[in-house]
Amino acid sequence: MENATITTMRAIPSLIAVVVLSATLVAAEPVEWKVVSVHDGDTLTAIDATNTQHKVRLQGIDAPELRQAFGTKSRDRLADLTLRKVVRVNVHDHDRYGRVLADIEAAGMAWHYARYSKDAGLAAAERDARSARRGLWADKSPAPPWEWRASEKGRKPEPARK
Question: Residue 154: inside a domain, yes or no?
């Protein structure tokens, strides 16, 4: 029992450090990070001043999946805007996958993700892009990524049976 208490006591400073680190990542002020990779139109990886990597999910938008129409164009547009650049990141929270949730302009290559965001600016940006038929809105019938993902789940083949 004494060893368990000592082990627990040693773990407490580490736990406190993790809690403090997590709290500092939800910053009131924007932070500057360098973008080192872009996964798709709404997810990128950036490093901070200590070279710590952060996977960032852009809050309030949902970009097409890579295999979906405009998926690679959406990713490429985000890369054009951010890759290998120092960007200001306004951290809000973390999602269920541990990614940092942060703001960025939609630029006509993503949907306003109204299910998770009530941001009037993003809603207006989407309306403007739609009416100008800019970005993915140039497509005759763009499919929202959440609908596309749901349809793809039904298409996946059954695993082979032994």
Answer: no
